[in-house]
Amino acid sequence: MIRVLVAEDQSAVRAGLVLILRSAPDIGVVGEAADGERAVELTRDLRPDLVLMDVQMPRLDGVSATRRIVAERLADVLVLTTFDLDAYVFGALRAGAAGFLLKNAEARELLEAVRTVARGEGIVAPAVTRRLIAEFAAAPVRGAGADPAVLEGLTRREREVLGCVGEGLSNAQIGARLDMAEGTVKTHVSRLLGKLGLRSRVQAAVLARELGL
């Protein structure tokens, strides 16, 4: 059972999300929060597997709440937003969110996104992720650039995999391109995330674009 906390300030939207999540036999909603501060408090108390986090909320915004939750390693965070590729999303990814989903996503997309993040893959709607990465690459720099020295601990193969992750490719697509088994790709991704101190593939993709891989 995937234990989910829903953080959304609009009660009607929150109720709809909870209804969708509870329709799945493998997903359980363990708590609800109407603001970012409460989301952090409940995550500390309930220790869900995943927090479905709205971006714009009172008291504490979703990006700041995500940063706190990830910093304390309390749960993975899936950011939910009405803003398609806006600056808040970039902030959430830098804060350590495992991915993001638009509020107009279909119910099945929401459920699959939760399952994907819960598996530790962090890929949410690959087509949307590719658009995010492309937008990030084309956008002005929003902070200090990544230090190429972070790649020194990676093997040549891990760097190649990281470059593919930066293109938004799935494990299967990376395997096809690099002539590797999908399981081997997954192992390389896990290792490079550990070496780079990253929480998700999406963070790795953003780093890869920052480094020009």
UniProtKB/TrEMBL annotation:
<dbReference type="InterPro" id="IPR000792">
    <property type="entry name" value="Tscrpt_reg_LuxR_C"/>
</dbReference>
<keyword id="KW-0238">DNA-binding</keyword>
<dbReference type="InterPro" id="IPR016032">
    <property type="entry name" value="Sig_transdc_resp-reg_C-effctor"/>
</dbReference>
<dbReference type="InterPro" id="IPR011006">
    <property type="entry name" value="CheY-like_superfamily"/>
</dbReference>
<dbReference type="GO" id="GO:0000160">
    <property type="term" value="P:phosphorelay signal transduction system"/>
</dbReference>
<dbReference type="InterPro" id="IPR039420">
    <property type="entry name" value="WalR-like"/>
</dbReference>
<dbReference type="Pfam" id="PF00072">
    <property type="entry name" value="Response_reg"/>
</dbReference>
<dbReference type="GO" id="GO:0003677">
    <property type="term" value="F:DNA binding"/>
</dbReference>
<dbReference type="InterPro" id="IPR058245">
    <property type="entry name" value="NreC/VraR/RcsB-like_REC"/>
</dbReference>
<keyword id="KW-0805">Transcription regulation</keyword>
<protein>
    <submittedName>
        <fullName>DNA-binding response regulator</fullName>
    </submittedName>
</protein>
<feature type="domain" description="Response regulatory">
    <location>
        <begin position="3"/>
        <end position="118"/>
    </location>
</feature>
<keyword id="KW-0804">Transcription</keyword>
<dbReference type="InterPro" id="IPR001789">
    <property type="entry name" value="Sig_transdc_resp-reg_receiver"/>
</dbReference>
<dbReference type="GO" id="GO:0006355">
    <property type="term" value="P:regulation of DNA-templated transcription"/>
</dbReference>
<keyword id="KW-0597">Phosphoprotein</keyword>
<feature type="domain" description="HTH luxR-type">
    <location>
        <begin position="147"/>
        <end position="212"/>
    </location>
</feature>
<feature type="modified residue" description="4-aspartylphosphate">
    <location>
        <position position="54"/>
    </location>
</feature>
<dbReference type="Pfam" id="PF00196">
    <property type="entry name" value="GerE"/>
</dbReference>
